[in-house]
Amino acid sequence: MRMEAAKIRPGDVIAKTLIWVFLILVCIYCLIPFAWMLSTSLKTEAEAFRMPPTWIPLKLTVDSYIGIWVRKNFGIYFFNSTVISLATAALSTFFGALAGYGFSRFFFKGRRFLIGFFLATQMLPGVLLVGPYFKILSKVGLYDTRTGLIIAFLTICLPFSTWMMKGFIDKVPDELDQSAMVDGCSRLGIFFKIVLPIVAPGMVATILFAFLLAWGDLLWALCLTSSEPMITVTLGIARTVGEFRIIWPMLMAGSLVGGMPAIILYVFLQRLLVQGLTAGAVKE
Amino acid sequence: MAEIRLVEVTKRFGSNTAVDRINLTAQEKEFLVLVGPSGCGKTTTLRMIAGLEETTEGEVYIGNRMVNNVPPKDRDIAMVFQNYALYPHMSVYKNLAFGLKQRKFPRSEINLRVTEVAHMLGIKELLKRKPKELSGGQRQRVAMGRAIVRKPEVFLFDEPLSNLDAKLRVQMRGELGKLHRQLETTIVYVTHDQIEAMTLADRIVVMHNGIIMQSGAPMDVYNNPKNLFVAGFIGSPAMNFFDVRITAEKGTLRVNGDNFQLTIPAGLQDRFLQAKDRELVLGIRPEHIYDRSIKGSFAGGEPLKATVEVVEPIGSQVILLASCGSENLTACVDPQTRAKPNAAIEFLVDTNHLHLFDKQTEKAY
Fold first, then answer.
1. Strand pairing partners for B345?
2. Looking at residue A277, what is its pLDDT?
3. Domains of chain B in sequence order
4. Which one of A57, A182, A217, B125 is separated from A261 by 20 to 30 angstroms, measured CA to CA?
5. Is the pLDDT of residue A180 over 60?
6. Which residues from A are below 8 Å from B85, CB to CB?
7. Which band of pLDDT confidence, cut at 50, 70 and 90, is reported for residue B297?
8. Are A184 and B103 a contacting pair at CB < 8 A?
9. Contact B1, B28 (CB under 8 A)
């Protein structure tokens, strides 16, 4: 019986092959745009328009990579994007965790309504909010500033971060709080010393979400900033598309470089992220 | 070492009263066990002593200080939780040291105390491990260590052994008793396991529906239950109950059941006389019912005929589940018994240990 079970049947081979073929096709489908971006970014401007197109550049050049830093202010764009995204991620996760802890542990009047209200704000599309935001930020003198953009991103990220962090904190048994309370901890002490370290994987997931949202945004940056020193990476890339001319190799180089931080973050934090997203999925 | 005093303490959750005007004192160095079924209010009482739950009414004293408005950290108590509540991101050492660190003890003192407690509980080798790398018993020890290391006035235990397997529970029970003698601290211990309560306690407090039903030394409560609930709850297997009436014939009192009649011995007659003409419940502990066919086991009792339904040999004794008229009874008899299911059996009841309760008030005579 065991010998029979161990034998590989022809049906299994076909099924396995089909699965592999399917997975390879999906991979190709996902990776072709990146391959095309890489290929185009290494071409001359003339070759980028060549028909039929070439996959491997006839004349390899890193000119566009140098161009985005020298002819465009990609250094400034990167700095702006990094500051804005890091601040958004850190602030929204921290305050989201604080709010999430409050929602998770304190049973006050109107708690359910407030939780629902937080979620409801997520239903509003960004386009709807950007107009009022433009007006408010202009009034308080924060239009075309990094602070203004950070505040705007926080309004989008904070409700989601709160929900996410509440979910993770709910999984931390209340007895740990009580035990720490008896041990001499204040509520804030419990939050910092007990709860936050335990929900660290959840925090990573939340940080990643907020960071990527701020890093990848174009609409808000386009509407709430105007001057060159405040431009973010996405806006900088969009601006390589001129009215009469698109410099494709530079656009592709900018996009690839602009996507790098997100990819690097994913690769390094992937393990923690998966842990965070699946925390509490099984009974421990 | 402090006395704990609860005066007229009530706890309500909305319209539900969890603890109803209880008065309770745990003397200095006493091992007090709160025991009762789930939902009887024992854990709520413990949590009110700890300060994790506010009292709705009444006063809680630790020592001479009223602590109603004192936060848990300032009550000088330590608590061991049912699920241990060890900090999962900290090593055993850090778990033990956490409370001392919070209280700003010098590092040398922390180190000294942690090492001392680790040695006392035999967890010295585990200090670098995280809680997830420990077995249930080891976690239990760490949880106790975390309480002991602070040398508090009062220890509170909330069903600390209920997550352990049967063998480990017996072992830890022994160690807990030893620890109490060593530390000489006031302990309030909550459990639903009456064996734990009986073996550990200096005094047990039986609770039901938020009320204290009886408190006293374990054997005193076992031998003289004040009401039907305590009689049925304390003791395993539980006490047998029969609906009876008492009659007097020629100066002798008799208990008349559905299918049996027992003569009340002279020693109990005065006490039971006042129960005459009332609807009553007779209580007989299973160990006071003997198999008449075993020679030399017991001679002085009154006969009681029944039909055996189930025979459960547990080694040191055999538990017989039998029916006597319309009532069921349990008897713990000598393992030499030849009782078989569906066969008639004649028991002997040790009438010196009869318990009589009023059916209406459920109080004992």
1. B306
2. 52
3. 4-233 (3.40.50.300), 241-358 (2.40.50.140)
4. A57
5. yes
6. 173, 175-176, 178-179
7. low
8. yes
9. yes
Q: State whether A175 and B83 contact (CB < 8 Å).
A: yes
Inter-chain touch A182–B102, beta carbons under 8 Å: no
Cα gap A93→A160, rounded to integer Å: 9
Q: Which residue has the higher pLDDT, B257 or B296?
A: B257
Window 43-62 of B: residues touching A by CB (8 A cutoff) are 50, 52
Confidence of residue A1 (pLDDT cuts 50, 70, 90): very low
Higher pLDDT, A10 or A107: A107
- Whether residue A188 lies within 8 A of chain B, CB to CB, comes out as no
B71 vs chain A: nearest CA distance in angstroms?
8
- Contacts of B336 by beta carbon, 8 Å cutoff, 6+ apart: B294
Q: What is the pLDDT of residues A82-114, one digit of tens each?
A: 999 999 999 999 999 999 999 999 988 999 999
Closest CB from A176, A178, A185 relative to B52? A178
Find all residues with CB under 8 Å of B254, minimum gap 6, and list them. Answer: B246, B247, B248, B261, B262, B263, B264
List the single residue in A175, A183, A197 with the smallest CB-CB distance to B89: A197
Model ipTM?
A: 0.83
Beta-carbon count within 10 A of B275 CB: 20
Beta bridge partners of B306: B345
Q: Which of the residues B79, B150, B151 would you substitute to probe the A interface, choosing the one with the greatest number of A C-beta atoms within 10 Å?
A: B79
A176 touches chain B (CB under 8 A): yes
Q: For B333, phi and psi rounded to 5 degrees? A: -115, 170
B309: part of which helix (H) or strand (E)?
A: strand B302-313
- Strand segments (E) across B27-105: 31-35, 57-62, 65-66, 77-80
Whether residue B79 and residue A185 make contact (CB cut-off 8 A), yes or no, is: no
Distance between CA atoms of residues B71 and B56, nearest Å:
16
List of domains in chain A: 2-63 (no CATH), 66-278 (1.10.3720.10)
CA distance B8 to chain A (A): 24
Q: What is the pLDDT of residue B273?
A: 82
Cα–Cα distances in angstroms (integers) from residue A21 to residues A10, A78, A98, A267, B197, in the given order: 17, 39, 47, 25, 66
Joined tokens for residue A224: 């709430």
Q: A175 — contact with chain B (CB < 8 Å)?
A: yes
The size of chain B, in residues, is: 365
Say what percent of chain A tops pLDDT 70: 93
Tell me the nearest-neighbour CA distance from B146 into chain A, angstroms: 9
| Interacting residues of A32 by C-beta distance below 8 A, sequence separation 6+ | none
Give B327's strand partners. Answer: B324
